[in-house]
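Quick one: structure for this chain?
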Amino acid sequence: MAGEDRSGQLGSTTGGAPVHRRSRRRRLLFALMSLLAVLVLGDLTVRGVLALRGRPVGELSARYRSGRRFRQQGQWQLYDANHPYLPYVLRPNLDLTIIFDNAIPTGIPGTNYPNPQGYREIPLHLVTNSAGLRGPEVRPEKPTDGFRVVCLGGSTTQGYYEDGDTYPRQLETMLRRRLPGRTVEVLNAGVQGYSTAESLVNFEFRLLPYRPDVVIVYHGMNDLKASLAPGFRSDYAHWRRDLLPPRPLVVDRLPAWLDVSAIYVLSREAVLARSRKTQWQRSLYDAWPDFQSDLAGLQAFRSNLRSLVAVARGSGVSPVLATFYYWPMVDTPEARKTARGISSQNEVVCALGRELSVPVADIAQEMPRDASLTFDGIHFTPEGNRVRAEILLRTLEQSGIISPRVD
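Got it. Here's what it folds into:
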């Protein structure tokens, strides 16, 4: 009897496991399954909400991977920040590919609008010569039959994709067909982020020794960013900062398989939104506009263009100005303010052309409003660069810099 009482106290067993222990395991398993169901349901809900808001998980993950490559490989490997007169220049003898995306900047550090055209990765295969110019080697001595054109600008001149897709290279091809008896060379002196201030220094100190016949000036957006940045100064010293390399983030070290979770992706976006602002404040080469300032800086923009014209003409170079093309792909206060600012700058370009009798390629008006010509409303696709080169070729003909085509 004592043994039976003891057995009753211990409870019955099956397979050696007490009933209450099996019951605890079942409860634990049920709790885990319930938690998993909640997580799966929550993940599906987050995935659906993001899709409805135009931010599908796959696109967010792709954008993140693009940013991670930027931080780990470093866009700044393209640049040398030790030049004595310029904040940075392209490194010589480069041959590398950098991947960007076609997101539309909001003007707020580290944030972008989704592109209505859908997410795309934009390659930049950058090959520079020994002078740090994008494109093939150019001898300092101009051939006796030479015809040289220098193209000044920012990323919209430096271009994306392959070198042959840029407008300077496509213009070179067109000019070689138009001037079969000349040795035609078009120098791409565009550098991402440059404004008229950098191009003025770049032209006078680094490009005049090539003895160009023509200089084409295509600027707008970067000067506008300087104009909109707080604390405006006419030399843009309030806007330009030291070029420091980007730093990888903690999330960059986490395994890629975590991207299967929409909750993780959304949580990472929240972390990135905060860290991006810190990264940009610390590491970018300029301060982004706050879009709260009144438009300023048109006088500085005009003065820099006037100086470029004077330097060119003083050295026997024919200047050509160009209006800046901007086609907003989103309707936001920032985009509307940017459009007004670019329009004001283009009026300055046209007025200065009339005042100084300088040819103006009115790219802003002559470029069709066609989504296939840019990937973000500013930066041109290869086809857009072809159209832009044709407009510039017509301007060179109409101004008498080259003889008009005889059909």
